[in-house]
């Protein structure tokens, strides 16, 4: 039965949100848009909300983060409601599974193992536990379980990290840098061959090795690229602002002027 009191109780917590979701999906009385959705149509929104959470964190926009975390939580509730309707699992199953996983993966907190470990040792223990979990799921290959729908750069990083665990890795960063030079030369050669497919392949190889360099340097490449994107936006907006002060737009300028303004914006950032 519909529970209107729960819907309008601001102190009801997660149960209120679950009831709202049930009502939105109710076949006779719910929202037509929500009723029409399925896992495939909602998944892109889930990915988008996760990135909006990351963006709010990058900008240290804490009030926005509260809202973005709520949006991401709602995505979990939406998927769980659809799963419950199909008889797959419930939201409580999701909560129980995650709680069990966290307890199992932290025996040094919830069990009898010692907490007197380095961060590196805890990371190794974590990876061993996850490997055992993958084995229980019949994931046999070292690369099994790396999600196919991850952003390509992040997936490359994770694939290489998995391969490195079984010894498939360059032992030194210098070798990775040498491989980048090799791939860049192959890309330059492909550029002159008028074969778009081969050119794309060589460009992908270069990006893949760059992701590996990030791993060797202890850098998460997706985060590094997001930071570079934010820096580019900030500096280009600075160029636009300086042009506006002169009564101009980028379309009214040329590369030489904008490049000089770009350098001025960089100098101002560093001085500030």
What does this structure look like?
The protein has 13 helices and no strands. The chain has 272 residues and is mainly alpha-helical. The chain folds into three domains: 4-105, MazG-like (Helix Hairpins, Orthogonal Bundle), CATH 1.10.287.1080; 141-219, Orthogonal Bundle (Helix Hairpins); 223-271, no CATH class. Helix 4 runs antiparallel to helix 5 (62-86), helix 9 crosses helix 11 (196-216) and helix 12 (221-245) crosses helix 13.
List its salient traits.
single chain; 272 residues; mainly alpha; Helix Hairpins; Nucleoside triphosphate pyrophosphohydrolase; EC 3.6.1.8; ATP diphosphatase activity; MazG-like_dom
* Corresponding CATH superfamily of the largest domain: MazG-like
Structural class determined from secondary elements: mainly alpha
Radius of gyration over all CA atoms, rounded? 25 Å
The number of distinct helices, counting runs of at least 4 residues, comes to: 13
Q: Biggest β-sheet, characterized?
A: none
Mean pLDDT: 91
Uncertain runs are none
CATH architecture of the largest domain: Orthogonal Bundle
Count the domains.
3
Query: How much helicity do the residues have?
Result: over 70%
DSSP strand content: under 5%
Oligomer: single chain
**CATH T-level topology of the largest domain:** Helix Hairpins
Topology as a string of helices (H) and strands (E): HHHHHHHHHHHHH
Tell me, briefly, the overall form: globular
Distance separating the two termini? 61 Å
- Beta strands, count: 0
């Amino acid at each position: 039965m519909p529970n209107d009191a729960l819907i309008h109780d601001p102190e009801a917590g997660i149960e209120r949100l679950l009831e709202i979701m049930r009502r939105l999906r109710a076949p006779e009385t719910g929202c037509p848009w929500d009723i029409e959705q399925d896992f495939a149509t909602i998944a892109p929104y889930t990915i988008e909300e996760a990135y909006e959470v990351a963006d709010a964190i990058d900008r240290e926009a804490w009030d926005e983060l509260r809202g973005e975390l709520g949006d991401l939580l709602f995505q979990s509730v939406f998927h769980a409601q659809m799963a419950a309707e199909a008889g797959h699992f419930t939201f409580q199953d999701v909560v129980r599974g995650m709680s069990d996983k966290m307890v199992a993966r932290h025996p040094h907190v919830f069990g009898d193992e010692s907490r007197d470990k380095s961060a590196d040792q805890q990371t190794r223990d974590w990876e061993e536990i996850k490997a055992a979990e993958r084995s229980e799921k019949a994931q046999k290959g070292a690369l099994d379980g790396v999600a196919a729908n991850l952003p390509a750069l992040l997936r490359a990083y994770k694939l290489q990290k998995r391969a490195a665990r079984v010894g498939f890795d360059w032992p030194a960063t210098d070798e990775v840098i040498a491989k980048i030079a090799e791939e860049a030369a192959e890309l330059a050669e492909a550029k002159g061959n008028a074969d778009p497919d081969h050119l794309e392949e060589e460009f992908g190889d270069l990006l893949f090795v760059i992701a590996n360099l990030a791993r060797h340097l202890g850098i998460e490449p997706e985060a590094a690229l997001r930071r570079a994107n934010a820096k580019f936006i900030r500096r280009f907006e600075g160029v636009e602002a300086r042009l506006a002060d002169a009564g101009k737009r980028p379309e009214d300028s040329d590369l030489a002027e904008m490049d000089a303004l770009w350098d001025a914006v960089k100098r101002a950032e560093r001085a500030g």
